[in-house]
Amino acid sequence: MRLSIKHVTQLALLIVLFVTCSPAEAQVRKTKKINLKLKTSGQYAVFDSILNAANVRFTPPKGFREIPALNNEDFTFDYAMDIPGQEFEVWYQVRSQKQNWASYERFKTDEQLKLANPDSIYRDIARAHAIAFTGQRDAFARVLPPAALKRYNADAGRSYVLTLEDMPETRHYQYALLIALQKFHTGTILMVFFTNQKDPEFYKNVERAGSSLKFKAIPPNVNKLVD
Asked: Most-buried pick from 50, 120, 148, 166 (CB within 10 A)?
């Protein structure tokens, strides 16, 4: 039986006071693809409020169209796009970690709670989704180098190249590249790029879709963790 992401991540996310469900105002998505102007759809409006809470900037890439983001028991995403006529999709999940950090600061000296530092949550998010997409626990993670982090104005990040479990939820795509990013004391970004061919065109599309999101510049003033 396929592993549920909710079961895999529940313990880790509770420890760091991280809530994985989408915001309360998120609407139920239709299953049929829609082609709307990105900045006028209801889905975009909700996504925009999430971006602002997490200090993230989004610039819609040219040639992409909005599609309904998947939001169910196994997968919770905020926004999604594809390229008409090509087998390529990107799903985004963005979360503010400000409240979690405030809670951690308040209770970090409590020996009974023993809370984990929320600035490491991106690793749990990435691994849990890798398991949910593949049904396997042995996916290899790569630590993103400083040059890659700089592009997103992030402090830490990891990536996975995944061979996907055959699922209707992912429209039977064969492969995915998963990237998880963290801005310390601020937020997390998860991006998943889907394809059936890991060719140069796929990585060009990854470049276009991935560069659409980045953290806004804010005063660092944080003690950065070492991945």
From this structure: 50
